[in-house]
Design brief:
158 residues; mainly alpha; 5 helices; 82% helix
């Protein structure tokens, strides 16, 4: 049974990393397409649109962080000899779901929002600060999911 607990703990880490990473990849790709169009027309806006394109990449970093914390918790990082019960493995999987699911959805949504903000910068580069606020609002929910997953994984007794 301890192998099954370890399996679910490892599955939790994988869900956090894969889903949040996929959300970031989708979001950065969406924003990148918009950014490429702007830079084609006006290369001087490269730095501004690059910053907006990078914003959806944070969800993947958050998922990776939860993945590392989880792997450490179940003893796969750090060399600890840990026995993970089935119920503990399932709790760890559940604790990883917030950042995995919210990271997937918010990464893509933030990419769409960033693309719209890139459109603002294309027409009114002086509005860059205002344009940054729109995708930053989406980031709030990824941060909340990150906090819940970190707190939950960290406080599950193994």
């Amino acid at each position: 049974m301890s192998d099954l607990g370890m399996f679910f703990g490892l599955l939790g880490a994988a869900v956090a990393v894969l889903f949040a990473g996929a959300g970031s990849a989708l979001g950065v790709g969406i924003a990148g397409r918009a950014a490429a169009g702007v830079v084609t027309e006006d290369p001087s806006k490269f730095a501004q649109v690059l910053l907006l394109q990078l914003l959806p990449g944070t969800q993947g970093i958050y998922g990776l962080l939860v993945g590392f914390i989880t792997l450490s918790k179940i003893g796969l990082l750090g060399g600890g000899d840990v026995t993970v019960s089935l119920s503990t493995g399932l709790m760890i999987l559940a604790a990883c779901l917030p950042i995995g699911i919210v990271g997937l959805i918010s990464g893509k949504s933030q990419g769409q929002c960033s693309a719209a903000s890139i459109g603002i910068v294309a027409k009114r580069p002086e509005s860059f600060g205002q344009a940054m606020l729109f995708p930053a609002m989406v980031e709030t929910y990824a941060i909340l999911a990150l906090l819940i997953s970190i707190l939950a994984v960290s406080n599950i007794p193994v």
